[in-house]
Amino acid sequence: MSRFRKPTTSFNTFGQVDADWIEDYDSHSFILNLPGLTTNDVKLDIIDDTHLQISGEFPPESHSRGKWHTRERPTGAFRRT
Domain tally for the chain? Predict the structure, then answer.
């Protein structure tokens, strides 16, 4: 039995993107860690004039060589409201 975890084929981050929310006297700032994404990969929507929704998709990794031992970086769709 291997002492290493089995490889994961995908890491579903749907709603699991960490965010910091900072409120100043006249503004709100949101800081998110979205490695590998550009501003064109991320969608911002205002829902019912009261909620900010952030969504996008991390591209799948494409390594054809070697054996995965672990995959911790996110792939797939995410959404945070």
Answer: 1
Task: Tell me the backbone φ, ψ of residue 41, rounded to 5 degrees.
Answer: -90, -10
Q: In terms of residue numbers, what domain contains 76?
A: 19-62+71-80
| Rounded Cα gap, residues 73 and 60, in angstroms | 10
Check: pTM over 0.90? Answer yes or no. no
| Backbone CA torsion sign across 22, 79, 51, 40 | positive
Task: Indicate whether 47 belongs to any domain.
Answer: yes
Query: In 3D, which of 34, 29, 20 has the Cα closest to residue 78?
Result: 34
Q: CA Rg, the chain, in Å? A: 16
Helical ranges in 1-81 per DSSP H: none
Q: What is the pLDDT of residue 24?
A: 95
Cβ atoms 56, 49 nearer than 8 A = no
Among the listed residues 32, 31, 79, 35, the one whose alpha carbon sits nearest the alpha carbon of residue 61 = 35
